[in-house]
Specification:
The protein has helices at residues 20-24, 27-36, 56-64, 106-117, 120-125, 127-142, 149-154, 156-166, 173-186, 191-215, 226-232, 242-272, 275-286, 291-304, 336-339, 374-391; strands at 39-43, 49-53, 68-69, 146-148, 234-235, 238-239, 313-315, 319-321, 324-326, 331-334, 396-397, 419-421. It is of the alpha+beta class. Bound molecules: protoporphyrin IX containing FE.
């Protein structure tokens, strides 16, 4: 008897990254990378070469590794990549000295000061206002029978919420809405408009901080806003300077805005395309329960979270990650979306299970840069989804999923529009 030769072991070809198909559904490409090239060097659309880290264990290690700096000064930048790793338009300016661009000991000092002002208690006290904002926005389109949930709901909610929390007067909040709109639409695109918007925002925040400092009474007043809290925060006699307070207010806006838009957008989309899970949540809300809502929002973050890749890190010394040598100056991007679908960490990672336990996802990062705004994001996400499903019980997609367009930026993952229909 002749034995059949084994078929040759073949590896499917490496997927193309950063294409239109990839922006629509990056998960098959991430599965390939996790399996065949878990720490993978690639050229990004901007021309910068970076390592992509896709396995959960490596991702968690990288996020906590102090040899990976957040300071772009450590980037060994080739000429063609200069200026491509910062917030567009504001690379050298004062606003760049913020939590996501600095390392200890500066990071420790600033994070401690902001944590004194931006407390979980302040966020909890803000819950009624978030509910009010949510209801007001839904009131505006509830009679129409259709809406674009990104434009009409997911986009304005976080910007008004963070402006209110910071203490930006209501009459100025639409300016912020416009500046933020420019940043979200053109984040990776034409620089001019974005740079102008960032500049206007910075000028406005500096001016507001200046006025608030002048008006600040000796003692804290109940319900005082976050900017006043930032000005007042002190630690062993240390305070934030006006520039640091402006940079802090800016990063709270910047880090807390598009992320939350996408949590609401991606989360609603996932619910509308998983009718059994959505029914389960709706029944549980109707009974006045909160547990499934709380585990559900965490699962939506894991399943299709707003932050596809954590923000930049740069090696400060030679290191090995997932068996791969990384040279000093090399940029490293931790792919949270890939790590959170790693079958080595999550059972049935491609299944949406709103009651998933043991769900230590990396959607808010890990280590010293763990998301400072997580309590606010949870509050907004839970309020938004619960209120939508309760007030518009027959909410459904108003477009074929194949026709929806994803924004395809590098760091964030989110829909451009989310057309929905419901009984008015
Ligand atoms: C950091 C995710 C909402 C403020 C981070 C990081 C992630 C993240 C992954 C770490 C980035 C890294 O290590 O490179 C999210 C998600 C959100 C959200 C998924 C919404 C669902 C918010 C909100 C705020 C906020 C609402 C504030 C209003 C911040 C700040 C940092 C941060 C200040 C930097 C912390 C530090 O470097 O110490 N966030 N975020 N985030 N986030 Fe969030």
């Amino acid at each position: 008897m002749t034995s059949q030769p084994h078929p040759p072991i073949t590896t499917p070809p490496a997927p193309e990254l950063f294409t239109w198909e990839f922006a629509t559904d990056p998960y098959p490409a991430y599965a390939w990378l996790r399996e065949h090239a878990p720490v993978h060097r690639t050229r990004l659309p901007s021309g910068v070469e970076a390592w992509l880290v896709t396995r959960y264990a490596d991702a968690k290690q990288a996020l906590a590794d102090q040899r990976l700096s957040k300071n772009p000064a450590h980037h060994d930048e080739p000429e063609h990549a200069k200026g491509k790793t910062g917030i567009p338009g504001e690379r050298k300016a004062e606003l760049m000295t913020h939590l996501l661009n600095i390392d200890p000991p500066d990071h420790t000092r600033l994070r401690r000061l902001v944590s004194k002002a931006f407390t979980p208690r302040r966020v909890a006290e803000f819950a009624p206002r978030v509910q009010e904002l949510t209801d007001d926005l839904i009131d505006r389109f509830a009679g129409e029978g259709e809406a674009d949930l990104i434009h009409d709901f997911a986009f304005p909610l976080p910007i008004y919420a963070i402006c209110d929390l910071l203490g930006v007067p209501r009459e100025d909040q639409d300016d912020f809405r416009d500046w933020a709109g420019m940043m979200i639409r053109h984040g990776g695109g034409p620089r001019g408009g974005v740079a102008r918007s960032v500049k206007k925002m910075r000028g406005y925040l500096l001016d507001l901080i200046h006025r608030k400092r002048a008006d600040l009474p000796e003692r804290p007043e109940p319900g005082e806003d976050l900017i006043s809290g930032l000005i007042r925060a002190s630690d062993h006699g240390e305070h934030l300077t006006e520039n640091e307070a402006a940079a802090m207010a800016f990063i709270l806006l910047f880090a807390g805005f598009e992320t939350t838009v996408n949590l609401i957008g991606n989360g609603t989309y996932a619910l509308l395309t998983h009718p059994e899970e959505r029914d389960r949540l709706q029944r549980s809300l109707a009974k006045g329960e909160r547990t499934l809502l709380e585990t559900g929002v965490e699962e939506l973050l894991r399943y299709d979270g707003p932050v596809e890749l954590a923000t930049w890190r740069f090696a400060t010394e030679p290191l090995t990650l997932g068996g791969q040598d990384i040279a000093p100056g090399d940029p490293v991007l931790v792919v949270l979306a890939a790590a959170d679908r790693d079958p080595a960490r999550f059972a049935g990672p491609d299944t949406l299970d709103l009651s998933r336990r043991d769900n230590q996802h990396l959607g808010y990062g890990h280590g010293i840069h763990y998301c400072l705004g997580a309590p606010l994001a949870r509050l907004e996400g839970q309020t938004a989804l619960a209120t939508l499903l309760t007030r518009l019980p027959d909410l459904r997609l108003g477009a074929d999923p194949a026709d929806l367009r994803w924004r395809g930026g590098l760091i964030m993952r989110g829909l451009r529009t989310l057309p929905v229909e419901f009984t008015a």
